[in-house]
Amino acid sequence: MAEKLLKKKARKVTPDKADTPRPLQSAAVLVGTYKARQLAWIKRHGIYNYPVKEGDEFDEKAFASIKELWLYADVKGTRHVFEAEFVGKMTRAEFRAANPTYAKLGPSKNKAYYVFKTAFLDYGPRLDDPVVIARTADFGGRSAKVKKAIGQFKADGEFAPLEHYLPSDLAQIPRNRLRVCEAAVQLDFLLGPYSLYSCVDKNEIQKVIADARRKGKLTCVEICAGAGGQAIGLENAGFEHVALVEYESDYCAVLRNNKPNWNVICADVHKFDGSPYVGVDLLAGGVPCPPFSVASKQLGENDERDLFPEAIRLISEIKPRAVMLENVRGLLDPKFDVYRNAILERIRALGYAVQIKLLQACDYGVPQIRPRVVIVGIRSGEHGTFSYPPPEKRRAPSVGESLRDLMGANGWRGLNRWVERANKVAPTIVGGSKKHGGPDLGPTRARRAWAELGVDGLGVANEAPSKDFEGMPKLTKEMIAAIQGFPPSWDFGKKKTLACRMIGNAFPPPVANAVGRCIRKALNND
């Protein structure tokens, strides 16, 4: 088959010789940089051979998803686009025997190749939304610079602009659609879009975990990371995130914008492989609450959004020292007794001592009535024991005390009178769903509770009340975030409705911090 393939004449596809190009569905593009004579050879023979070095283990199904090649004359040179059809794997001897002219291109140490049949596309790329796969070794002489940038990123969370290392048109591609891979890296890009630094290198991940352990730090993988509420709390409790997995791109953007040093993986948790992260100290997650929320249909295990099974799968793959999963109070409803107990038993069967408890956010300094169920498991063999954090001795601040500065930002004359009226903690902040309308503070009953505090819950304001404002003020998204326990510097972006949904669906950072400190104490046997 190899000889027949390599003897076929190369095709050239132009608009005149083909039907009008139709955009393809999301697929993969392989990128490389080559010398002019190498590009000429690929064009002439209609063959592309991807080198497989000793120790490389790639999934051939992943290569089958590659539909185009973007080959550059050099980093600043012209892009040559080829249609690609994956054929299979060939040894170096087989490849050279089938086409002796290849040997003239220069010596090669590669043991084998993944071979593609190609056709040059005069009219350029036709992929609609590709995942770009780029090997740093392909960027002639710049590999060391890229590796140095990645190393610097891992060290202090800062890195030079991507365009310093990639061709200019690649640099314009959003980072969650671009992957930079090196030797011994799994090309498991069928899993969907990943961030620039989440191309899974098991060895590198294990080095990060080992380095953190040497420094006395605890590591964490977090799923369903949302807009960062739980992650902020766990970081403040002393955990270093190795990875944060979140499905919604808007949420991922918020995480990356606020914490550039976090390894945010924008992907479906169903497709997230936990095996490279074996040995992290904590697997945490705020699995979706709608399956158990009284505000929803409470379909439980029959709801497609139920991710408890995926959390259990990841526990078995990662084998963390501790587990922390949070959900809504509805998980404790009698109708879910069988399912809830099954979840706990499955975690116990994996070797964990499991506890479950309903915690109230206002017991940990959050100015809000927000009950959350928190499941904690400690792996057998750990010498410490876990106990849930006791309520703080100081009462949580009232809404008025919490928002005095924000509400008075424009010099509102009625501020003191309002603070006296807003003398209790807030009702539960709601996030709603994508189907929910514009931003507000919840259904009728919730808005009545807000009205007792002197807050108009029908809508969200863009700014604090003006100096001569009369009536009940509305909250801004910054005020809602403060009531949820987020730090003032946390930026949810400019879209008000989206920001309110992110905030309302979050786990309050102070609660995550309190539980995280108790987990850390158990793992350190303090």
Short description:
This protein is an alpha/beta fold.
Task: Describe the 3D structure.
The chain has 526 residues and is an alpha/beta fold. It is built from 17 helices and 15 strands. It has helices spanning 2-7, 36-45, 60-64, 92-98, 143-156, 168-171, 202-214, 229-236, 249-258, 308-318, 337-349, 399-407, 415-421, 444-452, 477-483, 496-504, 509-524, and strands spanning 11-13, 28-33, 47-52, 66-72, 79-91, 112-121, 131-135, 178-181, 218-223, 239-246, 264-266, 282-285, 322-328, 352-360, 371-379. Strands 1, 2, 3, 4, 5, 6, 7 and 8 form an 8-stranded mixed β-sheet that branches. Strand 9, helix 8 and strand 10 form a beta-alpha-beta unit. Helix 12 (399-407) packs antiparallel against helix 13 (415-421) and helix 12 (399-407) packs antiparallel against helix 15 (477-483). The longest helix is centred in the C-terminal third of the chain and has 16 residues, at 509-524. It is globular, with a radius of gyration of 27 Å. The protein starts with a helix and ends with a helix.
